[in-house]
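Standup notes
- DV: blocked on the single-chain target, sequence here:
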Amino acid sequence: MKRRNITNNITNNKILIVDGDEGVLEILKLMLAEYDCIPAKDGETAIELYTKFKPALVLTEIVLPKMDGVEVTRKILKIDPDAKIVGVTAFGSKLGKALLEAGAVEL
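- DV (later): unblocked, structure below
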């Protein structure tokens, strides 16, 4: 699969990062320090924050508290069919296909 540079087209400088692990959230925020990162520790919070901030990009883990990343992807795309969602997960080989089928642009 050809990889794309998904950060090239970020226009509003906001990235929603969804992961149940506080350490992962902090690492990704540091890696993406040039962007306005919005952290969410669970799927339900991710939906609320997406609706409030309309970030240009969503990075989501698949395995999350309260609502998994596949359902988060489906719900966000129902809110905004143009949303850009990328899976950032250690479970890609097992669960990645479901995330891509739900509408994520990359894994």
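- Follow-up: The domain at 13-102 is CATH 3.40.50.2300 (Rossmann fold).
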